[in-house]
Design brief:
Helix Hairpins; alpha+beta; 4 domains; 13 strands; 12 helices; 48% helix; 4-stranded antiparallel beta sheet
Length: 601
């Protein structure tokens, strides 16, 4: 039925069109905002991204400067990635992953962003660095012990007090090696002037740890100085480590520019050699876009106003379009709701005003109302029929019992036989109603077993042979081949018995009733054919309805409760089969049962 709805009338098409219009407005607004704000946003992003990259490199370089390996760097990488929104990966020179914030198996960017090497870095600087290219946080053997830190800190505080007494304000800061030093509050560097009263020289005296490390540095520098054509004695003046000392010649004067220029590389190389065991190996740093990029810029107030205004306009259009469509959709639904809330006995219909899905729903509602009305009429008729079927035998039984009690007639065998016959009719109606109730409730039980069709037909024929003889109707059986059923034999005898009884009642004297069985592929086909009066074409669709009889009166001329054929239909369905009736008025009727076949033995 939905195929006949015009395309432009279909609810889905209308919703798609509405959604498309909203989407077009949204895309247009987004494009306009992108053109208006992207340029400035990209500039801000580039600056922030560069700052983030420098921050990542600086923090990883600091980690390498203070750890002999990368074994614990994964947590640092994860935190940096979460803070900056960047994908961060560290690898060896052979591209073996050391740590990666991305999921395992994610491919690396095409090239590394930088090399993380605290002994050769020109991308990080910090005030107090003594040797160019070496991260000042790489202190290695120059790191003071706890006792030395406490002692130096006390000397620094004493000097700070001395400075304050002469009117000079200073701050205290701690170098990476743990040494406390005085700094200028404005510049952050060491004070340019030291009052004579404060120049006791004790604060800058090397600690045992620094002396030991300095001696080792001198030994490492001697060979290089010799190769450079300098006096190896200059090695004694190349100490200082993280703090640094002036380089002077052995005779007491400062080194000349040439000598200082030649000595500096020796000092740098010796320093790197000395620190190498204390820092992590060189690693390649790869940077990429993370799964949840951080917000790198904030829009200006003007851009925010544009976004808010455009979003408000799109929202208004969306609400208006949705309200219009919703109103047209809800109106027929409200009509349906109002009709459904009416008392059932009124059987209210709703007008069908459209040809879309709501119109189809309204038509289906009206069809349901009509079916409900018919079912209600059938229910009332069925209750009336049940009352009639039960009243007739009960009235007969009661009447004969009353006249017998009053002594009008004697309880002779004929009377008792008549009462017994009426009781059997009453019992048959009750049993039929019970079977139908069980079928409706789904509690109809079957006891399946292999059943031979020829034996089944013979048993049914034998049970009705006397009735057939009394009606002067020939009862025949016909079995084609060996056919078996997997069925409940009692229920199958009931099915065929109902059909045979029905056929005998409607077949005039001299006629015949034939019960046959044959195999048809995996199915077994059972037929009950008679040469009776037949069924009119208008009545044929109703033969399996409860209490239906071709005779509209309740004279019960042909007998029966009107429940036999409905029971047949339910029992056959319970066996997984089907039943159908064909008939020609004046020629006879054929009831055909198709059931799943069973084993052959």
């Amino acid at each position: 039925m939905s195929a006949r709805i015009p395309l432009h009338k279909r609810l889905l098409v209308r919703l798609l069109i509405t959604s498309g219009l909203i989407a077009v407005c949204s895309v247009a607004a987004t494009a306009w905002l992108a053109v208006a704000t992207t340029t400035q946003a990209l500039r801000e992003e580039q600056g922030q991204a560069l700052a983030d990259d420098m921050e990542v490199l600086a923090e990883l370089s600091g980690y390498a400067a203070t750890h002999p390996d990368w074994s614990q760097v994964a947590e640092t990488v994860r935190k940096l990635s979460a803070r900056t929104g960047r994908r961060i990966a560290l690898t060896t020179s052979t591209r073996r992953i050391i740590a990666d914030s991305a999921r395992a198996g994610t491919s690396l960017p095409p090239s590394a962003a930088a090399a993380v090497d605290p002994l050769h870095t020109d991308t990080y600087s910090e005030r107090g660095a003594q040797i160019p290219g070496i991260d000042p946080r790489a202190v290695g053997p120059y790191r003071l012990t706890e006792a030395e830190r406490v002692k130096v800190d006390a000397l620094a505080r004493k000097r700070q007090l001395c400075f304050s007494q002469v009117g000079l304000e200073t701050d205290l800061s701690r170098t990476p090696s743990g040494r406390t030093v005085l700094t200028d509050p404005d510049s952050g560097s060491a004070p340019d002037y030291v009052p004579d009263a404060c120049a006791d020289g004790r604060l800058n005296t090397p600690t045992p740890t620094e002396e030991k490390a300095t001696k080792a540095l001198m030994e490492l520098a001697r060979g290089c100085l010799t190769k450079a054509g300098l006096n190896p004695g200059y090695a004694a003046l190349l100490g200082g480590g993280p703090v640094g000392l002036d380089v002077r010649d052995p005779l007491g004067g400062k080194l000349g520019d040439k000598e200082a220029r030649l000595a500096q590389p020796c000092r740098d190389e010796a320093r790197r050699t000395q620190l190498d065991p204390y820092v992590a190996p060189v690693a390649e740093l790869f940077l990429g876009t993370g799964d949840t990029p951080a917000v790198l810029f904030d829009m200006s107030p003007a851009n925010k106003a544009k976004v808010v205004g455009t979003a408000g306009l799109v929202l208004a259009v969306t609400v208006a379009a949705t309200a219009l469509v919703a109103t047209r959709l809800v109106r027929p639904l409200r009509a349906l709701t109002a009709a459904a809330q009416q008392p059932p006995e009124l059987h209210v219909r709703v007008p069908v005003t459209t040809r879309d899905e709501t119109g189809i729903l309204a038509a289906a509602f009206n069809d349901l109302t009509e079916r409900r009305e018919r079912i209600e009429a059938q229910r009332k008729e069925m209750v009336s029929d049940i009352a009639h079927e039960l009243r007739s035998p009960l009235t007969n039984i009661r009447g004969w019992l009353e006249v017998t009690r009053d002594g009008v007639v004697d309880p002779d065998p004929a009377l008792l036989g008549s009462l017994h016959e009426e009781a059997l009719v009453l019992q048959r109606v009750i049993d039929d109603l019970q079977d139908l109730a069980d079928a409706d409730a789904g509690t109809l039980r079957l006891h399946r077993e292999p059943v031979r069709c020829d034996e089944l037909l013979q048993q049914v024929a034998a049970a009705h042979r006397v009735a057939a003889g009394a009606a002067r109707v020939e009862l025949r059986t016909d079995v084609g081949g060996e056919a078996w059923l997997d069925a409940d034999p009692v229920r199958m005898r009931q099915v065929l018995g109902n059909l045979v009884s029905n056929a005998l009642r409607h077949t005039p004297p001299g006629g015949s009733v034939t019960v046959s069985a044959r195999r048809d592929g995996d199915d077994v086909v059972l037929e009950v054919a008679d040469t009776g009066t037949g069924i009119a074409p208008d009545d044929l669709p109703h033969v399996f309805d409860r209490f239906w009889r071709a005779e509209k009166s309740r004279s019960r001329r042909t007998g029966g409760s009107g429940l036999g054929l409905p029971i047949v239909r339910h029992l056959v369905a319970a066996h997984g089969g089907t039943v159908e009736a064909t008939s020609e008025p004046g020629t006879g009727s054929v009831f055909t049962l198709r059931l799943p076949g069973g084993p052959t033995s």
